[in-house]
Write a sequence for this structure.
């Protein structure tokens, strides 16, 4: 009996939450004995380690997306899918899922899609119209949270019934002994959505001035964040660690994890911090934190945008070691709840439910 064949489509595999899940899903499916093809829309460096058994298809040219590139991208995607002739296709990325569906029109292969950012993320009018027109043609849609599924169904006026909520898997984390520091940590690219400006304001409001904040990540907002650190007088209390492959060492040596995003798709870094047993505090933004944190049990949720409240709760965590330990013991249970085998088996069953 021939092996099941799947084509996974994503803009790139640069460092990021969406890219991490796709790379791990590809590795998992190969280990399950499937033939896995990974189609990248842009010719960029691959950040993640891939199983050598994965077939990678990349554009022959290196270019950012624009109207001209679209004329290259559509036939590239269509020809790739036709040549591979997979049993099923999965596409990641709300900006590009419509293009994949359009490029696949008339082909018999079922195409599944998944938006990976917050359901409240603003799309261009053109992209929004395309999604309303084309998402109903998908064989199914994977939503990362229940709120995302609810909002997507409403946006499509119920035209797409096959929407499945599947959370992101927790990557494999080795718990090793680290010397704990009086340190707060945040993980994520230096982009607008992560709202590090709000985090720096919160740090300036803290009564306890002795703990340091380490931000692990890189991005286009670095220069602006550096200026804000100076404006708040936080030069001795905030460290920009840049992009790091070994984020576990930063999580392992910290005591508190903070998330101040105003939008999330599914906050992978928050789950990783919980898996390390950190006391975690997050804004209740759309969407993700409320699916992960049970307020006061395994973490702290703060009403969106309430900086003073956030600072007070963070001060309490800094001063109360017993509370940090209690929250951390509950938080670490996420390791079984989001185990990679559990989550990716849900993916596998859903993606092949209508394959040819």
């Amino acid at each position: 009996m021939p092996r099941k064949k799947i084509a996974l489509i994503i803009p790139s595999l640069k460092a990021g939450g969406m890219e991490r899940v796709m790379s791990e899903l590809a590795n998992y499916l190969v280990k399950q004995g499937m033939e896995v093809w990974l189609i990248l829309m842009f010719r960029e460096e691959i950040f993640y380690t891939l199983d050598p058994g994965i077939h990678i298809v990349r554009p022959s040219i290196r270019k950012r997306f624009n109207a001209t590139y679209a004329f290259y991208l559509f036939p590239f995607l269509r020809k790739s899918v036709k040549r591979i002739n997979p049993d099923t296709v999965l596409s990641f990325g709300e900006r590009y899922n419509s293009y994949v569906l359009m490029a696949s029109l008339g082909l018999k292969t079922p195409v599944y899609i998944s938006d990976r950012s917050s359901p409240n993320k603003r799309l261009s009018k053109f992209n929004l119209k395309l999604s309303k027109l084309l998402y109903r043609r998908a064989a199914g849609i994977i939503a990362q949270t229940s709120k995302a599924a609810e909002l997507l169904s409403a946006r499509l006026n119920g035209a797409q019934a096959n929407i499945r909520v599947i959370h992101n898997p927790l990557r494999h984390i080795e718990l090793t002994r680290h010397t704990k520091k009086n340190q707060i940590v945040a993980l994520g690219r230096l982009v607008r959505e992560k709202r590090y400006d709000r985090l720096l304001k919160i740090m300036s409001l803290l009564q306890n001035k002795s703990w340091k904040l380490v931000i692990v990540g890189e991005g286009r907002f670095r220069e602006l964040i550096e200026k804000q650190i100076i404006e708040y007088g936080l030069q001795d209390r905030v460290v920009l660690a840049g992009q790091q492959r070994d984020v576990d060492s930063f999580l392992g040596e910290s005591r508190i994890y903070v998330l101040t995003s105003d939008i999330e798709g599914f906050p992978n870094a928050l789950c990783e911090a919980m898996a390390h047993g950190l006391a975690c505090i997050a804004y209740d933004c759309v969407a993700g934190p409320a699916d992960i944190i049970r307020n006061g049990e395994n973490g702290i949720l703060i009403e969106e945008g309430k900086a003073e409240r956030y600072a007070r709760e963070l001060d309490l965590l800094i001063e109360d070691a017993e509370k940090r330990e209690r929250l951390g013991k509950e938080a670490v249970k996420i390791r079984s709840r989001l185990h990679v085998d559990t989550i990716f088996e849900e993916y596998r069953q859903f993606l092949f439910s209508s394959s040819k």
Summary: The chain has two domains: 5-169+339-351, 183-337.
